[in-house]
């Protein structure tokens, strides 16, 4: 029977080999090698980093395969845990059933897949490692060997990323090949001879028998003193002979057909269920009421509403910990406890851990991605766990015994022993079988509700409370730029975030230093930043905050909280409190209440908290009659405990003097900074830095735009917009679509004209004859009266005379009035509301010279 | 026999004509995106390229379409959107939000409307948005969530854009600066007739606006105007009765070459290049077409043109009584004497008395209350306007008034006034001669 040592009623002792290496962050002690001693079968396995290992899973016949990347000891919690970081492989049976067809062929019996799914937790308990395995990478063109004698060898050819199978890259193959040689070198002499030469080193200890003896004598409580050596030996033999686990071969080779069928059926049922885990928690927790510290802490974790992956991990760690503890504390244990333990142990070891592993995989991979081995909370899994728990309450225990036998047909020894123990230990008689059967039941049940929990789905917890609105996503991805001009346009768009902010280095440094010093000193302060629109104020501050956040991650500055509010994005000044509070704590409150809460937070002596950096954009809109908002914003940083840094941005340089009361501007302080409008060379630099290595513009064209904009406003946004328009004009004028477009000076000239030219003159030129003559009449009337304003009646008489002179038909008052209001709606004229009729006063909105110029051309 | 034939003929005609009237009226009244665009090809290309870039590349844009009323702004955008939606990969991927400054009179209503049109209410379920602030942050959140490549582009069309600029703080417009940051791609298209629209924008909003303007100026000449006239009247090729359609189109062609028709059109063209006024003219002409008079003639057009260019004030004067006419003439004389200074009832009454006593033969000497009544009637017709608001305690006889009729208007109206007594007409023409 090809079962893995998990089946054995064995205890494994895990110990480090070699000196610990301190991790770079001094959080962990890492090791190169680990030694696993299996109690009872007197083998000793040395596992090194880089080797491929089997890891306890829910499916005993198909333990998880992974490559060991790192061994370390987690001493964050009082009981030190041996942890390992691994790169997972998946077996074909672990691939969700609905995706299996993606492979497009029948998988080899010993084929596994590189699990290329970064969202998978790779941080595991080292004590779940069962043993070594050999993994041979295959080049894409190689065929997966079948019918290999050596069942301890697995083949990896493709990678699986939960979406599709991909061939392995050559680097990956090389990397996978590496540990093979090294593993071969460092293997200890193999004791029990297996068929395969390359089989992992199950080094049998010389003193097996002695050990067993001593162990049994030590555990006085053990109710199985007659435990025969023979079954154990048999087991070991099994283990040695074909530990390799592929379902078909194992079944075929060993079992009677009937049993095999049952087993296959069972595994098929259980395999899709990814959620059978959490119930273990429930079943375990009563058993864990033992007065050991480790278990207590474990329980604490499970009881509070941490995310389930965490819980699962803890559970998993707990089981082996129990084992080790067992071994260590054996001598001092009371008889009853020992018995209890021994009764629980086997089932615990044998427990399917499929889901656990799934979850663990996910979270650990996330951790790997962020390189911080902290687990992520997940509400969804907590919910589902609760649901499963509820279901469990309704489940009876009737069929537990039979089922257990069905499930664990191979574990005769352990079962028999546990049965014996049960009989002798009345306080916890049925713990073991129930646990297992419940697992099975719940897994079946939960599989109905959540047939396949893809990691991807569970990654995005959709709690009903935080339903965030979203514009629906497009069904077809946006096109990527095809030509140079399109690429240039993309880079020139205002939304494109440049890697650096040229020409604002000094300002950047000043703001950075200001905030950094406040962060380091744990104090607060205010800064006022002014400048005309489009000079990069907000962009610079954002850049500063980004850099500081990076620095905080690297522990260069103390961590801080960054909040941003924008006066323009508020409907009403007092809403600023609501926004700040919401971003700070997530609370929702009315404006008044939020103000109180914030004042309490910032002004009262509270527990030490991290610094808050608050960016207030468009400060002038927070002006109220009492100026209480500005007052508060600038007053809070002055409190020692507040640790609040306020950066304010506004357009006008003299805002503090102009609109603020003295008490407000005094609190604002004198830390001011003003962003000057960009000069033409700066604008040119900005443009060329955006167009880096992209030959879309002539240099002169850029210079023209930069000079034009600098002369008018120095607004970088305008500059970018004009250039973007110039690329469009270039594209339009381009006849051949394949020729590489180059924006010339003519194109940018046209764009500049388009954006800056006044439309009044073209509007006058394109107006109708009567409209033009009405404008002339206005000019005539103005000249006659010497005023810049006239009533409609006066203009009308002039108009009639003009029309008579020019031979136009006589215009009625109604028509002329229509003409007048038409010109008024275009704002060529400024007119009073038309209820004044003949008496409405008319003014020109354009200079008289412009009108004359526009009318004269023809 | 012949009469029966003509009768059946006219029956057929009647059927065709009702169809013709339906088709043409639809064309004149609705801005259907099926009609042709006149002389705006460049602008159209600019706009449709812009929309396509937003839809396909996820590029955020903002543009203002500026042009006088009736220059085809809405038609342009409708055309562009229709063409855009015909592209297969776009139609599924673009959301449109239509807002009108006349309907969404403040930002609160506008935000609600945007939320509704984006179907975002469904996402929130039964969550009720009480306040404006919540609404705003909700919408901003929604738009912030997206990114350039994966979110559906949203096209905002703001009709009467200038009215949005009058909203408090221009919050809505400022927040369209999401078109300037890497969030859900949006295109903001503003339609306005104001040339000074940029001056209305607050400096921050102005800096965030891309300064793209598409001007529609009706920049066509008279020959093209005639062509438009022809196209607007011609029946489409898919008209069921081919024979009739052919005849109708021939007639239209003949009309467009007719001299008097061209004169009418030229006059119209001089007044306004607005295509809507042309539609109005054609509509009036079309209404004169009956079964017995199945084809338009130049005379129909001329009469319609007269209707269009009618002076509304003169029409009112035609319906006045002789006494009221006399009062208006008295006011005109007062205006002449005192050079546009305001007058009161007593002055008008005195002037009228002078006329009755010295010159009038046919006009009866009405009593003062009757004259007062006539005077008030004129005020109700808004032919005269009080200088200040009427207050209760002031005596109505002495309230200062102004005449809202021009001298030429009065003279023209009098000439056409039916059964005008000769002495009244003489009084009107004579200037101060009786003194």
TrEMBL record, chain A:
PROSITE patterns: BAH (PS51038). This is Origin recognition complex subunit 1. Pfam families: AAA, AAA_lid_10, BAH, WHD_Cdc6. GO terms for biological process: DNA replication initiation; mitotic DNA replication checkpoint signaling. Residues 45-171 form the BAH domain. It is found in: Nucleus. CDD domains: BAH_Orc1p_animal, Cdc6_C. Keywords: ATP-binding, DNA replication, DNA-binding, Magnesium, Metal-binding, Nucleotide-binding, Nucleus, Phosphoprotein. Its main location: nucleus. Residues 434-448 have a biased composition (Low complexity). One of its GO terms (cellular component) is nucleoplasm. The lineage of its organism: Eukaryota, Metazoa, Chordata, Craniata, Vertebrata. Gene3D superfamilies: 1.10.8.60, 2.30.30.490, P-loop containing nucleotide triphosphate hydrolases. It comes from Rhinopithecus bieti (Black snub-nosed monkey). Residues 454-463 have a biased composition (Basic residues). Residues 207-216, 354-364 have a biased composition (Basic and acidic residues). Component of ORC, a complex composed of at least 6 subunits: ORC1, ORC2, ORC3, ORC4, ORC5 and ORC6. ORC is regulated in a cell-cycle dependent manner. It is sequentially assembled at the exit from anaphase of mitosis and disassembled as cells enter S phase. Interacts with CDC6 and KAT7/HBO1. Interacts with LRWD1 predominantly during the G1 phase and with less affinity during mitosis, when phosphorylated. InterPro entries: AAA+_ATPase, AAA_lid_10, ATPase_AAA_core, BAH_dom, BAH_sf, Cdc6_C, ORC1/CDC6, P-loop_NTPase. Component of the origin recognition complex (ORC) that binds origins of replication. DNA-binding is ATP-dependent, however specific DNA sequences that define origins of replication have not been identified so far. ORC is required to assemble the pre-replication complex necessary to initiate DNA replication. Belongs to the ORC1 family. SUPFAM superfamilies: P-loop containing nucleoside triphosphate hydrolases. One of its GO terms (molecular function) is chromatin binding. Residues 193-202, 241-253, 268-285 have a biased composition (Polar residues).
UniProtKB/TrEMBL annotation, chain B:
GO terms for cellular component: chromosome, telomeric region; cytosol; nuclear origin of replication recognition complex; nucleolus; nucleoplasm. This is Origin recognition complex subunit 4. Component of ORC, a complex composed of at least 6 subunits: ORC1, ORC2, ORC3, ORC4, ORC5 and ORC6. ORC is regulated in a cell-cycle dependent manner. It is sequentially assembled at the exit from anaphase of mitosis and disassembled as cells enter S phase. Interacts with DBF4. Interacts with POLQ. Pfam families: AAA, ORC4_C. Gene3D superfamilies: P-loop containing nucleotide triphosphate hydrolases (3.40.50.300). GO terms for molecular function: ATP binding; ATP hydrolysis activity; DNA replication origin binding. Belongs to the ORC4 family. PANTHER family: ORIGIN RECOGNITION COMPLEX SUBUNIT 4. Keywords: ATP-binding, DNA replication, DNA-binding, Nucleotide-binding, Nucleus. It is found in: Nucleus. The keyword Nucleotide-binding applies. SMART domains: AAA. Component of the origin recognition complex (ORC) that binds origins of replication. DNA-binding is ATP-dependent. The specific DNA sequences that define origins of replication have not been identified yet. ORC is required to assemble the pre-replication complex necessary to initiate DNA replication. Binds histone H3 and H4 trimethylation marks H3K9me3, H3K27me3 and H4K20me3. CDD domains: AAA. The gene is ORC4. It comes from Rhinopithecus bieti (Black snub-nosed monkey).
């Amino acid at each position: 029977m090809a079962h893995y040592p998990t089946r054995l009623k064995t205890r494994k002792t895990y110990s480090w080999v070699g000196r610990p290496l301190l991790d770079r962050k001094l959080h962990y002690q890492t090791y190169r090698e680990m030694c696993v001693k299996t109690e009872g079968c007197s083998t000793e396995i040395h596992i090194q980093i880089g080797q491929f290992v089997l890891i306890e899973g829910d499916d005993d016949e198909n333990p998880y395969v992974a490559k060991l990347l790192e061994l370390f000891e987690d001493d964050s919690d009082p009981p030190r845990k041996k942890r390992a970081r691994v790169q997972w492989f998946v077996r074909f049976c672990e691939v969700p059933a609905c995706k299996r067809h993606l492979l497009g062929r029948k998988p080899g019996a010993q084929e596994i897949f590189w699990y290329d799914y970064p969202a998978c937790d790779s941080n595991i308990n080292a004590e779940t490692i069962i043993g070594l395995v050999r993994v041979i990478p295959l080049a894409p063109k190689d065929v997966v060997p079948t019918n290999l004698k050596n069942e301890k060898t697995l083949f990896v050819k493709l990678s699986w990323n939960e979406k599709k199978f991909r061939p392995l890259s050559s680097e990956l193959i090389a990397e996978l090949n590496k540990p093979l040689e090294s593993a071969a070198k460092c293997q200890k002499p193999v004791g029990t001879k297996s068929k395969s030469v390359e089989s992992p080193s199950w080094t049998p200890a010389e003193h097996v028998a002695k050990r067993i003896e001593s162990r049994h004598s030590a555990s006085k409580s053990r109710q199985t003193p007659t435990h025969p050596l023979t079954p154990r030996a048999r087991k070991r033999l099994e283990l040695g002979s074909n530990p390799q686990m592929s379902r078909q071969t194992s079944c075929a080779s060993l079992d009677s057909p009937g049993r095999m069928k049952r087993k296959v059926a069972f595994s098929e049922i259980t395999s899709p269920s990814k959620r059978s885990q959490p119930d273990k928690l429930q079943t375990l927790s009563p058993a864990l009421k033992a007065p050991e510290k480790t278990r207590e802490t474990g329980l604490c974790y499970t009881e509070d509403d941490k995310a389930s992956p965490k819980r699962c991990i803890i559970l998993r760690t707990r089981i082996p910990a129990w084992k080790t503890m067992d071994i260590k504390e054996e001598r001092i244990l009371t008889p009853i406890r020992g018995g209890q333990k021994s009764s629980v142990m086997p089932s615990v070891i044998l427990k399917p851990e499929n889901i656990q592993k799934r979850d663990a995989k996910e979270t650990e991979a996330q951790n790997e991605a962020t390189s911080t081995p902290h687990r992520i909370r997940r509400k969804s899994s907590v919910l589902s766990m609760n649901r499963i728990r509820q279901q469990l309450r309704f489940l009876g225990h009737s069929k537990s015994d039979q089922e257990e036998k069905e499930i664990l047909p191979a574990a005769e020894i352990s079962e028999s022993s546990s049965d014996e123990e049960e009989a002798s230990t009345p306080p916890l008689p049925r713990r073991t079988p129930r646990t297992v059967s419940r697992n099975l039941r719940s897994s079946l049940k939960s599989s109905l509700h959540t047939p396949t929990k893809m990691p991807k789905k569970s990654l995005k917890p959709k709690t009903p409370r935080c339903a965030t609105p979203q514009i629906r996503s497009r069904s077809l991805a946006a096109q990527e730029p095809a030509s140079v001009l399109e690429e240039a346009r993309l880079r020139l768009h205002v939304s494109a975030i440049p890697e650096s902010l040229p020409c604002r280095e000094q300002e950047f440094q000043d703001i950075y230093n200001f905030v950094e010093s406040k962060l380091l000193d744990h104090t607060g302060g205010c800064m006022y930043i002014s400048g005309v629109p489009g000079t990069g104020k907000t962009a610079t501050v954002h850049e500063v905050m980004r850099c500081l956040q990076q620095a905080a991650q690297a522990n260069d500055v103390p961590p801080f909280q960054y909040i941003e509010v924008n006066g323009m994005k508020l409907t009403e000044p007092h809403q600023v409190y609501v926004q700040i509070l919401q971003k700070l704590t997530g609370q929702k409150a009315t404006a008044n209440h939020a103000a109180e809460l914030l004042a309490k937070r910032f002004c009262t002596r509270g527990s030490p908290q991290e610094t808050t950096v608050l960016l207030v954009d468009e400060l002038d809109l927070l002006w109220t009659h009492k100026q209480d908002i500005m007052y508060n914003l600038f007053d809070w940083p002055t409190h020692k405990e507040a640790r609040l840094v306020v950066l304010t941005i506004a357009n006008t340089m003299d805002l503090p003097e102009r609109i603020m009361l003295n008490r407000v501007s005094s609190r604002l302080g004198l830390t001011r900074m003003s962003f000057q409008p960009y000069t033409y060379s700066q604008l040119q630099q900005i443009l060329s830095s955006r167009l880096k290595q992209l030959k879309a513009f002539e240099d002169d064209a850029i210079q023209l735009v930069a000079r034009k904009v600098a002369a008018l406003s120095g607004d970088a946004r305008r500059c970018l917009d004009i250039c973007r328009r110039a690329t469009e004009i270039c594209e339009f004028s381009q006849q051949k679509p394949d020729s590489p477009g180059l924006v010339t000076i003519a194109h940018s000239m046209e764009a500049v004209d388009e954006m800056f030219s006044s439309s009044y003159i073209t509007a006058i030129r394109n107006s109708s004859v009567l409209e033009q003559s009405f404008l002339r009449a206005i000019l005539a009337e103005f000249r006659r009266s010497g005023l810049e304003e006239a009533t409609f009646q006066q203009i009308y008489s002039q108009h009639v005379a003009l029309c008579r002179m020019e031979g136009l038909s006589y215009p009625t008052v109604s028509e002329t009035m229509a003409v007048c209001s038409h010109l008024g709606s275009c704002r060529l004229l400024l007119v009073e509301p038309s209820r004044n009729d003949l008496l409405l006063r008319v003014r020109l909105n354009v200079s008289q010279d412009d009108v004359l110029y526009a009318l004269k051309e023809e | 026999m012949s009469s029966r034939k003509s009768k059946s003929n006219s029956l057929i005609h009647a059927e065709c004509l009702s169809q013709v009237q339906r088709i043409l009226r639809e064309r004149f009244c609705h801005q259907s995106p099926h009609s042709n665009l006149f002389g705006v090809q460049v602008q159209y290309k600019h706009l449709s390229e812009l929309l396509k870039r937003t839809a396909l590349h996820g590029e955020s844009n903002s543009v203002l379409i500026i042009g006088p009323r009736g220059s085809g702004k809405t038609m342009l955008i409708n055309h562009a959107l229709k063409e855009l939606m015909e592209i297969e990969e776009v139609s599924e991927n673009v959301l449109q939000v239509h807002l009108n400054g006349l309907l969404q009179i403040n930002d609160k209503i506008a935000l609600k409307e945007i939320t509704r049109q984006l179907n975002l209410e469904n996402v929130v379920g039964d969550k009720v948005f009480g306040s404006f602030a919540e609404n705003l942050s909700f919408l901003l959140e929604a738009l912030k969530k997206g990114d350039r490549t994966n979110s559906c582009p949203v096209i905002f069309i703001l009709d009467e854009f200038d009215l949005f600029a009058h909203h408090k703080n221009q919050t809505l417009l400022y927040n369209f600066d999401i078109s300037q940051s890497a969030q859900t791609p949006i295109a903001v298209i503003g339609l306005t007739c104001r040339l000074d629209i940029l001056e209305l924008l607050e400096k921050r909003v102005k800096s965030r606006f891309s300064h793209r303007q598409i001007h529609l100026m009706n920049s066509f000449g008279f020959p093209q105007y005639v062509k438009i006239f022809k196209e607007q009247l011609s029946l489409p090729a898919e008209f069921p009765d081919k024979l009739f359609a052919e005849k109708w189109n021939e007639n239209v062609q003949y009309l467009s070459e007719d001299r008097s028709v061209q004169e009418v059109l030229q006059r119209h063209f001089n007044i306004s290049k607005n295509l809507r006024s042309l539609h109005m003219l054609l509509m009036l002409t079309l209404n004169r077409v009956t079964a017995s008079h199945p084809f338009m003639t130049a005379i129909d057009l001329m009469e319609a043109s007269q209707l269009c260019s009618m002076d509304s004030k003169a029409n009112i004067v035609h319906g006045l009584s002789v006494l009221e006419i006399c009062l208006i003439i008295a006011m005109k004389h007062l205006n002449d004497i005192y050079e546009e200074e305001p007058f009161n009832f007593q002055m008008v009454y005195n002037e009228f008395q002078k006329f009755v006593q010295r010159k009038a033969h046919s006009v009866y000497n009405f009593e003062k209350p009757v004259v007062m009544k006539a005077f008030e009637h004129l005020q109700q017709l808004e032919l005269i306007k009080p200088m200040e608001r009427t207050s209760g305690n002031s005596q109505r006889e002495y309230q200062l008034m102004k005449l809202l009729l021009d001298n030429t208007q009065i003279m023209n109206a009098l000439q056409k006034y039916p059964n005008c007594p000769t002495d009244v007409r003489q009084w009107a023409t004579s200037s101060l001669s009786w003194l």
